[in-house]
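Render this sequence as a predicted structure.
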Amino acid sequence: MPRTLSKRSILFFSLIMLAKSYFAWYYLFEDGPTWSTWFKEIPFILIIFCLIEWFATKRKIYIYMLVNLLITILFFSLIVYHNHFGFIATSQVIGQAKQVGAVKKSIFAVIHPQYMLIFLDIIIISLIMLSRKKALAWKKSMSRPSNRRVVAALFCISLAICMMNIFPNQASMNENVQAEQMGILNYEAYALLADEEEEQIEFSQITQSVIDQTKSIQSQSKPLLYGAAKGKNLIIIQMESFQNFLIHLSIDGQEITPNMNKLADSNIYFPRFFQQVGQGNTSDAEFIVNTSFYVPPDGPATELYAPKELPSLPKLLEEQGYDTATFHTNEVDFWNRGELYRALGFNQYYDKAFFGEEDTVFYGASDEVLYSKTAAELARMNDSNEPFYSQVISMSSHNPFTIPESKYQMQLPERFEGTFIGDYIRAQNYADYALGQFIAELKQNGVWDDSLVVLYGDHRGLPIFSLEDEDEDLMKEILEHEYTERDLINIPLIIASGGVSTPSVKNQLGGQVDILPTVSNLLGVSLENHIHFGQDLMNQTAYNLLPQRYYLPTGSFVNNEELFLSGSGFEDGRHYTLSGDGNKPLKSTEDEFNRALELLHLSDSYVTQLPDREVKE
């Protein structure tokens, strides 16, 4: 390495970190690095390096290497996370690292070999350090004291530039835009240190009429189909990573989800239905469906809201004489589900301890085992004199979708073999096969005829940023248009029950928050004293407004015509028509943008002010 450069540790490592900043920007931001990248990243790095120069007298090179390693790990983690989820993670997200062990297969699936190049300098410098003669000479030159006045001046200038990057951009709604405006390291520091707790709306002011008015809907005094399924069991099936484009999809003449297709054709199918999950993903879907509240802004509902006395669907139905249970093949401690189930009021849960590990796919027993053992348990519950509510969580079609060959139920066309899209298609085909067995068992043991059955996807399966070029081409073939965020969050909803309605496709807009009020209406359960943020999709059909979080930037929403993605605010946001017709005039308004934010604020304020549960010893 050049002699003068090697003797200037602060310059040497600043150039290394600048290169790594450009590397990170290339993967994290749509437009990649620009001339301003150095201006947004280097000042923060110089603040740290100035402190090293000021206080470190011994082992300076090792301290520089440690800082280099820590920032490199941060950049690497952000790149991997963004590849999977599409946004810049913060300390709140990194705090969920305890879940990584349980989903390491999914994590490894989105780590591309080129990401490892960010560690190249650390390997090279470490090899140099192994040469004792070179290492001693270099460490000696690096240990030379710096001019303290120059270091102090550089520190002050760098701190001032960081403030210039942070403070003007605090109001940005889009987290990714905010990170780009501030710089990655400034954004991470701001997210860690800033106290951004929004002032809560007074609990007494949060009423159903206020929520309905904010949503621009009216309550129904005599709703249609009220009590059409009264007295029936309720079975809610949550399909892992199941996106709506799978319904009626055929590839080279092969139906991918024949059982879901039959359900959609012979029952009530909502194709314009959207996920609303947050950081807790699958567990957040369970929370939303059972409460009709939105997810919290900065963490999973299982962690932040489980300590609360949550009004919920299990509690509503228990008041009507229902037994309640939830079925999931993973360990109940994963994502703190045990506490969530207690908060929701389920009478009992069935997890890995019940389903065993005799036929494991990814993180628990296969869907075949899940459905077989659940069907037998539901038959037992059905023999009692009281109806039941059960939520069944499928999991075999979990990312990374590489199911065992023994589970293959279809032959993929050659162009799909070895691709992420192909693995997803095959996994969902298996999930559909197992579902078909479950339905057959429920019909055979008499549970199906006695039940209202609801099926929906929990969240997206195919993250946009994880797709290779060949995957994007395959998705374009399947969809006949570019795969966008509109397709990403579109999941199906199917409601099945004899006597409820004739088979139909309902084109009204809906989201996961709407399931509770919809099934409550069908079961004849009043929500007069139950605050909810969803609406009955059987009656309130003219308009809907679905705020989004986490997978899309804060301030994003879906209305009847569009998916709107916020920018710094409303004006620089992006519009995607739900029909896919880009020539239609823009249909999202700033009033809807403000109302979507207000709905989230109302939900946050309401849930956080609920009383804490009494924890039984």
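Summary. The two ends are 63 Å apart (CA to CA). Confidence is low (pLDDT under 50) at residues 1-7.
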